[in-house]
Amino acid sequence: MIGRLILSYPDAAQRAGIFLVLALVTLVIYQLGVSPAWIGHLVPATSGWLSENPALARLVGSVMIALIAAANWKALRQLSRRQQIAAVWLELFVLLMLFFYSFDLSFTFIAKKIGFLVSQGVVTTLYISAISIVIATVIALAGAIAKLSKNGVIYGLATFYTSLFRGLPLLMQIYIIYLGLPQVGYVIDAVPAGILALSLCYGAYMTEIFRAGIESINRGQTEGATALGLSPSQTMALVILPQAMRVIIPPTGNQFIAMLKDSSLVSVVGVWELMYLARTQGQTEFRHIEMLITASMIYWMLSIVLEYAQSLIEARFGRFNVR
After folding, report:
1. H-assigned helices in 168-273
2. Are the CB atoms for 154 and 162 separated by under 8 Å?
3. Burial 225-258 (b: 16+ CB within 10 A, else e)
């Protein structure tokens, strides 16, 4: 019956749907308890009424936010797709900055400390992440080939490795490597311990990504390469991996971004990376939130760079597959 009404009165059904969506959005905003104080900032004359009628003021504020969101949606629909993406990014970024601004941050303190965060913390974070990424990729490729091997010993080693390092928390791995290896007579510094832990942990996750990518290639490719006289190693390097990269790159890029952020965990062993400096620099003047937000923004910027690099690599291997 509802379907028949919608087909019979499409305009009325559309208006009713819009009204229902607005009502639901208003209800959600009201239940979230969003403060209507922003109305008082825009229209100072309403400040007294807002304080005297808190429940009604919340409802009015919720309705206004829902209407603003609807008007914004309508305006965005008039733009091209590329313009819509740019506008959404700009609007959300402005809202994020306004959210941070409401924390009453000391921008003078941030400006004084950000140079040291970048010159010391970012540099340390980047070289730890870069080295770990290279080692993890090598480990993952070797582990994937081992898991595809028909040799029981090699397969057992690969499966035990992936099970162990995917099963243990990364923080625990850092502690075990940094504090455990000296117990057997091998003293390791904090930075190498962090790099080793990141490499082993993410190498285990990426092993499954590489294995799945390699197995996604049709067996006929291997048989054709063998018929042409290529050795197994040549087949893997020249035939299988170039085609598998289209499948491997997207999840591997996500792992790289996750590794970049998880490099903050090496601060627990005293490495002067970005998160460690954000905590310690904020303690001097009890400005913790300023440094944590600044570090978060820096991590985000680094992640955006990695996302862009990932998109370029995906596009490149996508062209190879088109050919």
Report:
1. 170-175, 190-215, 219-227, 232-235, 241-262
2. no
3. beeeebeeeebbeebbbebbbbbbbebbbebbbe
Question: Do residues 274 and 119 lie in contact, with contact meaning Cβ atoms separated by under 8 Å?
Answer: no
Instruction: For residue range 120-148, list pLDDT tens digits in order.
Output: 888 888 989 999 999 999 999 999 999 98
Task: State the amino acid at position 262 in one-letter form.
Answer: D
pTM beyond 0.70, yes or no: yes
Using DSSP's 3-state secondary structure scheme, residue 145 falls into: helix
Contact (Cβ atoms closer than 8 angstroms) between residue 140 and residue 206 = yes
DSSP letter for 102, please: T
- ∠ CA(244), CA(202), CA(196), 5° rounding? 130
| Greatest pairwise CA separation for the chain in angstroms | 86
Residues, the chain, total? 323
Residue 200: other Cβ atoms inside 10 A: 20
Tokens of 217: 């290639």
φ, ψ at 79 (rounded to 5°): -95, 165
